[in-house]
Amino acid sequence: MIYTVTFNPALDYVMYVDDLQSSDINRTQSEQLFYGGKGINVSVILSRLGVENKALGFLAGFSGRQIEDMLGKDSIKSDFVYLKKGYTRINVKIKSEREIDINACGPEIDSRDIEALFDKLEKVEKGDCLVLAGSIPKSLPDDIYEKILERLKNKGIDFVVDATGNLLKNVLKYKPLMVKPNHHELGEMFSAEIKNLDDIKKYGKMLQDMGARNVLVSRGRDGAALLDENGNIHTMGNVPGDIVSSVGCGDSMVAGFLAGYYKTNDYAYALRLGSACGNATAFSSSLATKEEIENMLKNENLK
Question: CA–CA separation, 102 vs 94, rounded Å?
């Protein structure tokens, strides 16, 4: 079983406006409502690939219930902690000649809520995998990732961390199965500029020396590179075309990598499936469907 944790989920309310004006009332041409959050995105793609998983984290109020309802309709298993106050954040996305994103801060999370999450995490068993993804809200302690991994470190669990900066560096001592910075984030961690594959090898190896077993680096238009725990480096290109949206691409890659790894124990295939998932989401208006992923796997650029 794979468990994902999303500390600050959101409903994304997307409004399409033909001619956005600041001097008058604007009326939309259409609207869409999506659930979001990096861990939730990973759970969605895993579920579409037929991999058993459960989404954990915090929800609150009517907006939290809406997310849970939407996840249930999409057959995504979840076991969230419900906060007694506040509302799960609603982010507003305005699509017009220019795009405007307004992201809410989310509800307050107190020590009792954190303990409730820890209680749920105690159900994670030997051989399971726990995915910690994304930034943390201001109401949580900066070392929340470390607190979680410290509690679970002796249970024989695989850890995957998709975070940046010190949030990532500080958990490397727990020897995560995989970490996934993009090339910009990798450079920022070492105050360096990542210009080529040699740079990725150099700084990715430094993350491995600090404890990471596998380092998956997404490289934008240049594809992705994986430094595996056996000392090999694998690379994969991208599929050319006009990208619809980059939202969720990295999360899709994490999910595809895990699905491929646990199915075959082959890191080259794990990277290929991860790249197919990331590319499929890039060419979709939302997270990729199973059919879109399967079609992307047939693309010559991913072989």
Answer: 9
Q: 162 pairs with which residues across the strands?
A: 133
Buried b (16+ CB within 10 A) or exposed e, 111-134: eebbebbeebbeebeeebbbbbbb
Q: Which residues are catalytic?
A: 251
**Burial per residue of 192-204, b for 16 or more beta-carbon CB atoms within 10 angstroms, e otherwise:** eebeebebbeebb
How is residue 95 written in tokens? 């699509």
Spatial CB neighbours of 281, under 8 Å, sequence gap ≥ 6 = 45, 245, 247, 248, 249, 252, 287, 288
Q: Which residues pair with 36 in a beta bridge?
A: 10
User: How many residues in total does the chain contain?
Assistant: 303
pLDDT digit string, tens, across residues 124-147: 999 999 999 988 888 898 899 999
* pTM (predicted TM-score): 0.93
